Amino acid sequence: MADQTLSEQIAQHCMALRSDRLPGDVMSAAKLHILDSLGCLLAGSRLEPGCLAYELAVAASGGNAASTLFGTNQRAAQLEAVQAMATAAHCGELDDIHGGAATCIGAMIVPALLALAEKHRGSGRSFLEAAIAGYETTTRIGLSIEAPKLFARGWWPSTICGAFGVAAAGAKFLGWPVDKTTNALGVASLLAGGMLTGGQEGATARHLAFGSAARNGLLALLATEHGLTGPKRALEDPRGFCFTLCAEPKFELLREFGKFHLLDVAFKPYPCARQLHAGVEALLRLISQHSIGGDGIRSIELAVPTQNAGMVDRPATPTLRAATLGSGQYVMAVTALRGKIDLVSFEDEYLRSEPVRQLMEKVTVSASTELDRHFPKYWAGRVTVALADGRELTEEIIAPKGEVENPLTRLDVEEKFLGLAGPVLGAATARAAIDEVQALDARESLGPLLAKMATVS
């Protein structure tokens, strides 16, 4: 292995993954992350950015309708469909994330595998193994370049790392040999990239950039099939991927094959930027414990790690869904007034609410050097609420809900899926889809799952 390039080592590891040799907790986690990603995709297909991405996919397909746009009755060309479905899966901000690698993963991997499965069929076991390969590759890439630091430079880590994961997952699903998989990873390195700008303006095409990363991973596979060659030393070359993005890459983390990073990928219980989840959880805990109402609040201070503060301190956020998802001021205000936060919190009823606007003016976001010590493993938050009666209440969350130290249970994830998928598939079909995902390792065909995903209520 010492003579192999890093891409070859990653490819060899992915191709060697077999469900009968994988730990049970890894298999169970993979099923839950697949289910969660499917729910995010279905719900996102009915949100504005998802709908627009689907329309774009159909328009760009030129009559080629090879792939289903799940969540609807529409079809599009495979590349366009993957881009659209990944856009939809991410735009609700409910998709899973690995904090240390700063990457949202399932919203790219699962839509790409759906499109491949629809064309090539395959077994549930191969789908599971491929998803695990994609998750492991994406997180290793992100960890090796210290991806959270890229935020401050305007790069979006998910769009930087995602193409590698999709390429690895697709190659594994298709049963490719190591040399062919290595080439696909090399091509993916040439296609990596995406900017972070536009969040505060509410630019909906930011979600499309996420979808484009998934598309590029699939494009790397197609390019390999058609004879295009990529660099074999894409990761370690002095002008390659890792050194371009990081002064001192942690190559040892790319080769840490004894650890399954999938187990550290967090679920998102709240539909907003992950940087805000600890604050939301802290605020909800204070509301529950002290029966706080919006009328009794004089001020709310949200403290987050220094790097996150620059991203979520948005006092002048326009009343646009895509802008408010990452606004500490909006998210804290709407959560305080409603006593909860869900997809409805970002609909016009609240985006145009004067009480929300007024409370936003009482919310401040600050950088905490004390919380910096937990970053980037944990995106912590501390909330201090000053009340009209003179009380000042504080709550701090280090590991927000969904992390392995503060987990969502299997039942939690299934209930989340039912809430997201039920309105699209119908309650009975959504429950049947849960059963299909849980039985993936025993399914010789993916047909039943694909059929349920294509059933629109």
What do these coordinates show?
With 457 residues, the chain is of the alpha+beta class. The protein folds into 2 domains: 6-264, 2-methylcitrate dehydratase PrpD, CATH 1.10.4100; 274-397, 60s Ribosomal Protein L30, Chain: A. It has 21 helices and 8 strands. It has helices at residues 6-16, 24-44, 48-60, 78-91, 106-120, 124-144, 157-174, 178-191, 205-225, 241-245, 251-254, 277-290, 306-312, 321-324, 328-338, 348-351, 354-360, 369-372, 410-425, 427-438, 447-453, and strands spanning 67-68, 75-76, 97-98, 103-104, 297-305, 363-368, 381-387, 392-397. The strands form 3 sheets. The protein has a 4-stranded mixed sheet. Strands 1-2 form a two-stranded antiparallel sheet. Strand 7 and strand 8 (392-397) form a beta hairpin. Helix 4 packs antiparallel against helix 9 (205-225). The termini are far apart.
